[in-house]
Write a structure and sequence with these properties.
heterodimer; B: mainly alpha; 9 helices; globular
């Protein structure tokens, strides 16, 4: 008797019982269900919700692996000094680095999935619906957007809050207004600010060693710039991600690869990604223009961030990660093609604005995306109204030719 | 209940649950968000509103036959304002620190929709005794929600209850704090109260589905 049959039997046994959704979920997660149509095939598509989710997770795996190495690299680099001649294999892809990743990053992933799926299962059983797959991606995103030393119980509390208040109260997967992963991050940010911002939380052990003789800095690039400090990282460091930051946000290179993968599999919208990049560049250009014109002098506390070249905004901090994996969330983003352009544009635009103007939030991407999540239905509404108006106008100006009545059936089938 | 008839008891008990001014009628939300970061402030606010609403209801009820209906709102405002000023002065005299915490929100009891709502809906049409009971009932319903919110916000946000450090000392690292617990800063800011109110509404309606509005 195979595992699949066992699971199927369990499913049959608990059919109609309260716990049924929990068993069904395990079965359909691992295997195709036994109850398939036997004859007269209908539409066959492989891209159900689970496959969609799994594709996104596949796009996240390289980022996760990189972040596990980077966790160790930043930790040992901050203590022993970074190597002068950087070699990828001997300095970065080492077992020591990876071990830090295993003991620090994997527990975050485990807690995120464990707690989140537990909440999903409990809600499925209480409400008597099937367990929804919505948490698969959220559970992977959450550990990648928090600082590495975040205490696990805080993550657990935030996950419960995010899944219940961010998603379940609105009716579960597909009904939520706000991106659950970002809701979790926002909750952490406001509940435990000392663990979510500042110059100590981004590198493993920086908090532990603070104040002692071995104190190390864990400042991010944006944090340094917000204090008008000097930045020591090269452009290739920023692009490939050998910089401190939230667990998975650092490597723009791998995020771009993941983004391309998502675009070519048609999971994520290229319109949102492109327009968000344009939005960030436009805001960056405006700030650069202001500093170039000399309206803001070097004594201003905004000078460093405002004079930071606009394209560099894209490769530091969480902007790339947010644009590729968060803004493109099909549930909380705009649904119309035209709306997606506005939606993405304002995400990029507002992200850079928050970065520059609010030193308390050196990373404004998650706030910008949450804000635009709220506005997405409004954007869609006006896009649709605009379209209706345009078509009404076209209808008014059109000359209507009498069609012979036998063809009226055909006309109905066409969409107007 | 020997003391009250069944109908009179209903005047007090209904607003506590199935006709709660905050969770069912969704009135008086503003002060529920603003002053519930501490349990003590919540209790004082609840007592103040109880005084104003019960007294105001009686006064309006006594005058209900002589108030010209065209200017009744102004008369109601004068009555509330008088009572609120009394409360404000008493707080300033006997609990100065607390009146600092409550600051403008004592004055804003005047604009609390529950009060004008009860004057309009009840006191203008009923006798003084019933109006008094109605005032007590509604302000209890308001107060109980305030106390629940205040309890959770102070406990989770500051680790204290009525000022007592029930979870240990965050600086000395005693009690819960010694094992790494930290206060939840989110509970101190007003949006947290909105979420707590939302959860109360959710729990109440899921326990009693007849309260769920059709939309």
């Amino acid at each position: 008797m195979s595992l699949k049959n066992n699971l199927h039997n369990l499913k049959e046994k608990y059919k109609g019982k309260k716990m049924a959704p929990a068993f069904n979920a395990v079965h359909t997660f691992l295997y195709a269900p036994n109850e398939t149509t036997q004859s007269g095939s209908h539409v066959r598509g492989a891209d159900d919700l689970k496959r969609t989710m799994n594709t996104v997770i596949m796009a996240l795996i390289p980022v996760l692996l990189f972040s596990m190495f980077n966790a160790g690299y930043q930790h040992f680099g901050a203590i022993n000094g970074f190597p002068q001649e950087f070699s990828l294999v001997s300095d970065f892809l080492t077992w020591d680095n990876f071990w830090i990743g295993i003991i620090k990053v994997l527990p975050l992933v485990a807690v995120s999935y464990g707690v989140g799926l537990l909440v999903e299962f409990i809600f499925a059983v209480i409400k008597g619906h099937e367990v929804e797959e919505g948490y698969l991606v959220t559970g992977m995103l959450v550990p990648l957007i928090v600082p590495i030393d975040l205490p696990l119980w805080m993550l657990a509390v935030a996950v419960v809050f995010g899944v219940v208040i961010g998603k379940e109260v609105f009716g579960g997967t597909g009904m939520n207004i706000l991106n659950p992963a970002l809701t979790i991050r926002a909750f952490l940010f406001f509940a435990y600010p000392t663990w979510m911002s500042g110059d100590k939380v981004w590198v493993h052990d920086a908090v532990e060693l603070a104040g002692g003789p071995d104190a190390i800095s864990g400042e991010t690039i944006l944090g340094t710039l917000a204090q008008n400090g000097d930045m020591t990282y090269s452009i290739s460091d920023m692009f490939f991600g050998f910089i401190p930051g939230s667990v998975g946000e650092t490597s723009t290179f791998l995020i771009i690869l993941g983004g391309l993968f998502l675009v070519f599999t048609k999971i994520a919208s290229w319109r949102i990604m492109l327009s968000a990049i344009i939005g960030a560049l436009v805001m960056g250009f405006i700030f650069n223009g202001v500093t170039d014109a000399g309206w803001i002098t070097e004594t201003s506390k905004f000078y460093s961030l405002m004079s930071f070249e606009s394209w560099k905004h894209l490769i530091v901090g969480g902007l790339a990660f947010g644009i590729v994996y968060m803004a493109t969330d099909p549930v909380t983003g705009s649904q119309t093609n035209k709306g997606k352009w506005y939606y993405g544009f304002f995400i990029g635009f507002i992200s850079v604005m928050i970065r520059v103007f609010n030193p308390a939030y050196p990373e404004g991407v998650f706030l910008a995306i949450l804000l635009m999540n709220v506005f997405a239905p409004t954007i869609d509404h006006y896009v649709i109204q605009g379209n209706i108006k345009k078509r009404m106008k076209r209808l008014k100006n059109a000359t209507i030719i009498e069609v012979d009545s036998s063809k009226s059936e055909n006309l109905k089938a066409e969409t107007v | 209940m020997g003391l009250l008839t069944k109908k009179d008891a209903g005047l007090i008990l209904d607003p506590l649950a199935d006709n709660n001014p905050i969770t069912i009628q969704v009135l008086g939300i503003c002060s529920a968000l603003a002053i519930t970061a501490e349990l003590k402030a919540s209790i004082v606010m609840a007592v103040s509103v109880m005084f104003v609403l019960a007294m105001g209801n009686v006064v309006i009820s006594l005058m209900r036959n002589i108030i010209p209906s065209k200017i009744r709102i102004i008369v109601q405002l004068v009555v509330v304002a008088t009572l609120v000023i009394i409360v404000d002065q008493v707080l300033k005299a006997f609990a100065y620190e607390l009146s600092k915490t409550l600051s403008v929100f004592v004055g804003l009891i005047i604009t609390n929709c529950i009060i004008m709502g009860r004057f309009e809906a009840f006191a203008l049409a009923n006798g003084p005794y019933k109006s008094f009971l109605d005032g007590i009932g509604n302000s209890l319903g308001y107060g109980i929600i305030l106390v629940i919110i205040g309890f959770f916000r102070e406990l989770l946000g500051s680790g204290t209850l009525l000022g007592f450090k029930v979870l240990g000392d965050p600086i000395e690292k005693t009690g819960l704090y010694s094992i790494g617990y930290e206060n939840n800063g989110f509970m101190i800011i007003p949006p947290a109260a909105l979420i707590v109110v939302g959860i109360i509404i959710w729990v109440q309606r899921s326990r009693n589905p007849s309260l769920i509005e059709e939309n």
